[in-house]
Amino acid sequence: MVDRLGLAIIRPMGEFVDGPSQLRFVGVCKRFGEQLAVADLNLEVAPGELFGLIGPNGAGKTTTLKMAVGLLRPSAGRILICGHDVQSEGRESRRHLGYVPDSAALYDRLTGSEMLQLAADLQGVSRERRRRRIPALLEAFDLSAVQGQLILSYSRGMRQKLALCAALVHDPQVLFLDEPTVGLDPRGARQLKLMLRTLCDSGHTVFLSTHALEIAAALCDRIGIFSQGTLAACGTVAELAAGESRPDTGQTGLEDAFMAVTGSSDDEGSNLLAALRS
Amino acid sequence: MALLRANRRSIWNSAWHRGGSRRWGTVMVLAGGGSAWLVAIALLDHFVGPSLSAAPSRLLTTVSGALVLLTGFTLVTSVSFAVASAYFAKDVDWLLTVPLSERGLLVHRMISQLALGVAVGTALLGPVLIAAGLHTGTLWLLPLEVLGLVALLAVPVAVGLLLVVVAVRLIPPTRVRDGTAALICLVGLGMAAVGISAHRSGAGLPWAGAINGLGSGWLHTAFLPPAWAARLLTSAWQGDGSGALVWSAVLLALSLATISVVLLISAPLHREGWVRAQLAPRRRTRGRVSWRPLPAVLALLRKDIRNLSRDPVQLSQLLLPLALFAIYLLAPQSIASSQVLLRNFPLWYGPLTTSLFAALFVASGLGLRAVGSEGRHFWCLRSAPLGVRDLLFGKLALPATAATGSALVLMWAAELRAQVPPAQMVFSAILLVLAVTGLAALATGLGAIWPRLDWSDPRRASGIWLSVVFLMLGSTFIGACLVALTVPLVIPQLGTVGSDLAAIGACALCAALAGVIPLRVGYLRLLRLEI
What we know:
The structure holds two protein chains of two kinds.
Chain A: E1 23-32, E2 35-45, E3 50-54, H1 61-69, E4 76-81, E5 84-85, H2 90-95, E6 97-100, H3 112-123, H4 127-140, H5 156-168, E7 174-178, H6 186-201, E8 205-209, H7 213-219, E9 222-227, E10 230-235, H8 237-241, H9 254-261, H10 267-277
Parallel strand pairs in A: 3-8, 3-9, 6-7, 7-8
Antiparallel strand pairs in A: 1-2, 1-4, 4-5, 9-10
Helix pairs in contact in A: 3-5
Chain B: H1 2-16, H2 20-52, H3 56-88, H4 92-95, H5 102-124, H6 126-136, H7 142-170, H8 173-200, H9 206-214, H10 225-237, H11 241-279, H12 296-309, H13 312-330, H14 334-341, H15 349-366, H16 378-382, H17 388-417, H18 422-449, H19 464-489, H20 495-528
C-alpha cells in the first residue's frame, strides 16, 4: 500500500501494534516561575503510533518534549517511557528513547562517524550492532561521503540528518523529534518521512512537534493541538477536521481546526496586511 | 552608530535585565572594581612620585618602552579580535545583506575593539595616570593624555585589521585564526623567555635591559608613535600643556590617517575574502574509526581529547603556561637559585612546588571548563542513559590526566637536573599525583557548580570570575598541601618511613577535602540542572 505522499505503508493508519502504551503523560505540569508552560497533560501514545504535536510558538511543545527526554523536570505529574518513570528511573527510560532537538548542536570537531560512535558508546551499543547499523544509517541519509569530515563543515541539513542518525543508532523504542524537517532538503524530508513510517510500522513510537501542518496531516496517526500550555484538541486528522474532538468549532481541514483551537482569527490577516502597507 | 547603539544596549541588558542575581552581581562587580580602583590610585601615589622625579631622559625612555610593549600587545590581540569579529561573528552574514557599507562594518569592528581596549585600559592604566596627575598637579591635562593614548592604540588596532583582511584573501580565515593563536603563544613565550633569562642573568626586566642597551638611541626618538605618546605623557606631567596638546594632535592625526588608509585598502577586500571563505571547501578527513565499544567515561574522555587536539586556540592556551613553567624550571640558573632559596628543604621541594602551580593552570584551563565546554551540546549527554556520576568522572578524566602528566614531566625533568635520588623522585611523584588530582577535582567540581552552557565555543565555558576564584582557591590548596606535607618531614621522631607515609597521608587528606566537596556539590547541581 502506498499513501498519498508515496510512502510505503504496511498497515493502515490508526492500527497500532498491540501492547501497553510506550509513552504516557500523567497529569504533567511545568511552571517557569509564575508562568504555566504546560498544564495537566494527560496523554498516551501506543506502540507503532506516530503522534504529532502542533501549536503556535510558545505553546509548550518543546517544553513537553524536553520533559519527556529528561532535560526538564515536570513541576507535577509523571512521564513514563516503556513503563519507566523519566524522573525516578531516568537512565533506564533514556535507554529506550532517541531525541533530536530543534537545531541540534553537535560536536563540531568530531567527524560524522565519530559522533555516531560517541552516541553508540553512550547507549552501550555492541560492536557487531554498530558495525552494521552506523554505515547503514549514514548510507540511508546520504552522509557516507562526508562521514570522515569534521561536523563544522556540515550544512544545517547534514547536521540535522546526523542528529537523526545519532538518535537512531541504538534503535530506540520511542523517538522524539522537535521540528525534524527544518533544514532538510525535499529529498531529506522524504527520507525522513519514509523512515518514520517504517519505524512505526515495526512497532516503534514516534512523538514529534512541528509547525508544518501538511507534514503532520500526511504523516501522523494522531495529532495533538497545543495552545497556551494545554492540549486543546487531540485526534486523527479526520476527527480534527470534522470537529469531532471539538464539536463547537465546526471547522473543516487541519488548518481550520488549528486556527479555531488556537484562537486565531481572520483579523490577523488584516493586521498583517495593514503592517505591510504601513 | 546604530550598531554601536545596539552593542551598548545589549551590554546594558546583559548586565541589568537578566534577573535579580545578575543585577546584584553587576552592582557588586562595579562597587568592588571601583573600590579597588580608588585604593590603587592611593597606593600608586607613593610609588609614582619617586619615578616621576627621575631624570627626564630616563623617564622618557622607560615610558617609551612600556608604550612599545603596550602597542605590540594591542597589535597581537587586535589580529585575533579582527579575525573573530570580521569573519566569525554571527551577525556578519546579516550585516553584509543590509545596506551597510563594508567600510561601516569595519569601522564598527574597530570601534568595538577600541572601546574594549579603553575599558581595560581605564581599569589598569587609569590609576597610574590619575596618580601621576595628582602627584604633579597636572590632572587637568588627563583628557589630553587619554586622547593621545587612545589615538596611539587605534593604530595597531587598524593595522591588525588590515593584516587579517589581507591574510584572508590568501588563506582561509580558520587558518588565520589558528595561526594567530600560535602567534600569540609564540610572542608570549618569547617575551617570557627573554624576561626570565634577563632576570636570571641580573639584567632586570626585558624591556629595561633592551632600553638600557639602546640608551638614548632610536627608541625614544620621534620615529616611533609610542615615543610620541611618551613625550605627550612626560610633557603633561611636567605641566607643559602646549607640548601635550601638540603631541596628542600629532597622534590623533596619525591614527586618523592610518584608519583612513586601512579602510581604503581593506573595505573592498573584506567582502571578497568573506565570500571566498564561505566557498572554501573544508575537506579535512580523519582516519578510520574503531568499532570497539568504550565505557561511557572513556568515550567522554576520547571525545574531549579529540575536541581539544583539533582546536589550536584551546591547545595553545593550554600549552602556553606549561611552556612558561618549563622555561622557568629548566633555565640555566634555576637550580642554583632554587637551592639557595630552599636550602632547608628536600631537593624535590622546589620542582614539586613549581610543578603544582603549572598543574594549577592546566586544571584551570581544562577542569574548570570541563562541564561548561559541553555548552549547547549538553543535550547529547543528558538525553543519553549516562548517570551524572559517570558524567562527572568522564569530565574529570581529561584535566586530571593532562595536569598530572604535564606536571610529572616538568617535575622529573627538573629533578633529574638537580640530581634528586630516584627514591625521592618516586616519593615526590606520589605527592604530586595526589595533590594534582585534588586540584583537578576542585576545578571540575567548581565548573560543575557554575556551568555556563549557553555557549557553543568551549573557550567561553568558564567566566573570568570563576577562574579568579579557582586560582585563589587552588593556590590556597597548594599552600595548604605544602604545609601539611612538610610538617611530618620535620618531626624526627617519625623516622624516615613514618614521616614519608605521614606526608603522603596529609597530602591525600588535603586532596580529598579539596576535591570531594566541590564534586559532591557539583553532582547535586547537575542532578537538578534543567536545560
